[in-house]
Specification:
Rossmann fold, alpha+beta, six-stranded mixed β-sheet, 32% helix, 33 strands, 740 residues, Elongation Factor Tu (Ef-tu), domain 3, 22 helices, 7 domains
Length: 740
């Protein structure tokens, strides 16, 4: 248990701690010379039951409240010290208000210097103190007359502290580790040491931790908890950690930093919170009010945004948004205190609610309802209330911002439908999942009834049919779940019911039966649409529409404009290099490594397309090289660094993962054939579960594609990339021009 002192200057806080523990908490030379506490002081008091009570002695001067706040955030029990001869003083009131804003409800009032006053003054001081305590978290606290000089009442005070120590701990030990740093120094022969109160969780020797918000990584070399060397420190203890790691020094780790589990490192500049303004505030708090935010041991300047039209008056409680000048490492539910920019008065305080506060639409009724839901202290209750007003919630982000451990989140997730996304898990209620699956099925049934000639509905069109539309990664995860359940089928870029297929009318089927032999008669030189129409004396537009329907049905592939190959022929070309009579000689293939740039060139530069492909398997390169006519293969590196940089800038580090390589393909007049190969062989291109990515980008030849068409094509590509599925084909028979 950590006991924190509070009270006006020169009321005997340090003397009382010294009398109880035998430790002088004034450690600075200046403090001893001036006879007042300037910075935080610490003492440890072993008890007969083997436990240790830690004391945080805070300064009482009005100009040192910022130091007092750095130590007050980590205490469990308040010892409010008031001199019997002076009674309640200004800093008594301010310290009491701060303790109340921090949510502290356990404490005792030590009415010190009782040896200097008579019974009447003692009774008057007690009555005055009781009136000041009314309406605060300490309103029921015992008022105990003591004397740090004569020792009067100290045995009773010690008994009350022992009784408080026996109460169950309130700090969560099953959450992830966080320690608020209030001191940083160097120990000779050991390294950098930091001290502070463990806010949650536990830490062991050799654990990997992170300093937030700086992001420095460190290893815990040794731990002292409550002034004893231990192997593990837990929530509620004052601990000293000796840290080692790149960049770790006493200058790099400062008061206000937080040592935490690396998973929790996500500092923020914008926080939604609940603010209670003190009744002593002289003016209403309006928009963009400048403040100093005190959280744990940190002090960060910022601005206050009121989440309503009217200003917040004295004594009122309202939702606000804190816009900070520096990142803050915090957790939802933490308490904070606001002071004015001159540090002359305390404005108010409250609890942090949402660490990922939106910059826009922050005052809408929907956002306000979400803040009300997130205000619940119980994580399970908060999630249930949030999902009552929205379809889904980012589960991992919720757990991180609240510091929850895996066991706690696993217990909560048992009653939810969870989807695993690259960015983290997303959860929704079972009834929401049922409604969503039903809506997608109804949309597909309606589309099939309206357009039976199409193989299915486009991904983006289906996503936007649900209002509000789901984010792309979540929509693709929902779609995969439905595919696994056999409810829908993903056919290239089309989504359809399993039983649906493009059907010809009887007349179209009859004509198609006459066209197909013409395509297979010369499999590698099939006639074009106009040649078929002229030879059969049929309208060219009708033949073109029929061929496109056959493409959607999977009978043929459009290799070039109005030039269709039978699908078995294309598959045969992909499987066998010798299938093409124009393939001049077998290619010499050898397995590439991550430093190899594969290049295939065409003799005709007039129809040149360039593709950048990243995959974990070299078989795509082999397949493409073996199936494209007029192929020459070179294994020398070609612009390898530049290609890798382009891939990283557009796709992040996923394209430069170990075992993968960025490879360059230059193809002549067969971009559609290459696209078909990548679509037809899922074993080569891989799926999302294998962590593989395939990307195709054609440079140049943007003419003929309008902005709307390019935008729609890019949207479909984003769907595929998010899901890690095979890349889509283009019904028009070309790839998008310009940027992909």
């Amino acid at each position: 248990m950590i006991v924190g002192t509070a009270g006006h200057i020169d009321h005997g806080k340090t003397s009382l701690v010294h009398k109880l523990t035998g430790v002088d908490t004034d450690r600075l030379k200046e403090e001893k010379a001036r006879g007042i506490s300037i910075d935080l002081g610490f003492a440890y008091w072993p008890r007969p039951n083997g436990e240790i009570i830690g004391f945080v002695d805070v300064p009482g001067h009005e100009g040192l409240v910022h130091n007092m706040l750095a130590g007050a955030a980590g205490i469990d029990f308040v010892m409010l010290v008031i001199a019997a001869d002076d009674g309640v003083m200004p800093q008594t009131r301010e310290h009491l208000a701060i303790m109340d804003l921090l949510g502290l409800q356990h404490g005792i009032v030590a009415l010190n210097k009782c040896d200097l006053v008579g019974a009447d003054r003692l009774a008057a001081a007690t009555s005055e103190i009781r009136a000041v305590l009314a309406g605060t978290g300490l309103q029921d606290a015992e008022i105990l007359p003591v004397s740090a000089v004569t020792g009067e009442g100290l045995d009773v005070l010690a008994a009350r502290l022992d009784a408080a120590l026996a109460r169950p701990a309130t700090r969560p030990k099953d959450e992830r580790f966080r320690l608020a740093v209030d001191r940083s120094f160097t120990l000779a022969g050991l390294g950098t040491a930091v001290t502070g109160t463990v806010l949650s969780g536990s830490v062991r020797v050799e654990d990997r931790v992170m300093i937030s918000p700086s992001g420095l990584e460190a290893r815990v070399r040794s731990i002292n908890a409550q002034d004893r060397p231990v192997q593990q420190g837990v929530a509620g203890q004052r601990c000293a950690l000796v840290l080692s790691g790149p960049g770790i020094s006493k200058e790099a780790v400062r008061r206000g930093d937080v040592v935490l589990d690396p998973i929790l490192h996500a500092p923020t500049l914008r926080i939604d919170a609940s603010l209670r303004v003190l009744p002593t505030e002289p003016k209403p708090i309006g928009q963009w009010f400048p403040v100093k935010v005190h959280h744990a041991a940190a002090e960060v300047p910022g601005r206050l945004v009121v989440l309503r039209d009217e200003a917040i008056g004295a004594g009122e409680t309202e939702f606000i948004q804190l816009v900070l000048e520096r990142p803050l490492a915090a957790a939802a539910g933490d308490r904070f205190v606001l002071r004015d920019t001159s540090s002359s008065r305390t404005v108010g305080g409250g609890a942090l609610i949402d660490l990922r506060a939106p910059e826009r639409r922050r005052r809408t009724p929907g956002r306000r309802a979400e803040l009300v839901a997130l205000s619940a202290k119980d994580p399970a209750v908060a999630i249930d209330r949030v999902l009552a007003g929205t379809d889904w919630i980012a589960l991992d982000g919720f757990a991180r911002d609240r510091g929850l451990g895996e066991d706690a989140m696993a217990a909560i997730a048992t009653s939810l439908v969870v989807f695993a996304l690259p960015e983290g898990r997303v959860a929704m209620r079972p009834q929401t999942w049922g409604r969503l699956a039903g809506n997608i099925g109804q949309a597909l049934d309606a589309f099939h009834a309206e357009r039976p000639d199409l193989p299915g509905i486009g991904l983006e069109q289906l996503r936007k049919s649900e209002k509000p539309a789901l984010p792309v990664p979540l929509f693709m995860a929902v779609l995969r779940r439905l595919i696994e359940a056999g409810e829908v089928v993903l056919d290239r870029t089309w989504v359809r019911r399993p039983h649906h297929e493009v059907r010809f009318s009887n007349e179209e089927e009859r004509i198609w039966a006459l066209i197909l032999p013409r395509l297979t008669a010369e499999p590698y030189r099939p006639p074009r649409v106009r040649d078929i129409a002229k030879a059969m004396n049929i309208d060219e537009g009708f033949v073109r529409r029929l061929m496109r329907m056959a493409t959607r049905r999977g009978d043929v592939e459009e290799v070039a404009h109005d030039h269709y190959f039978a699908r078995p022929i294309v598959e045969d070309m992909a499987a066998s290099p010798s299938a093409s009579p124009r393939h001049r000689r077998p290619a010499s293939l050898r397995p590439p490594n991550s430093a190899t740039s594969w290049t295939t060139g065409a003799r005709s530069p007039s129809r040149f397309s360039s593709f950048s492909i990243s995959t974990d398997l070299p078989s795509v390169a082999k397949t493409c090289a073996a199936s494209i006519r007029r192929v020459s293969i070179s294994s020398r590196p070609r612009r390898r660094n530049q290609l890798a940089e382009e891939s990283r800038s557009r796709w992040g580090d996923r394209t430069s993962n170990p075992g993968g390589a960025v490879r360059r393909f230059q193809v002549g007049s067969t971009p559609i054939l290459l696209r078909h190969l990548l679509e037809t062989y899922p074993d080569d291109t891989g799926h999302a579960g294998a962590g593989r990515r395939v990307r195709i980008c054609r440079q140049g030849h943007a003419r003929g594609r309008g902005r709307a068409a390019q935008k729609a094509h890019r949207a479909d590509r984003r769907h595929r990339a998010a899901a890690g599925l095979r890349l889509p084909s283009d019904a028009a028979g070309s790839l998008p021009g310009g940027r992909c």
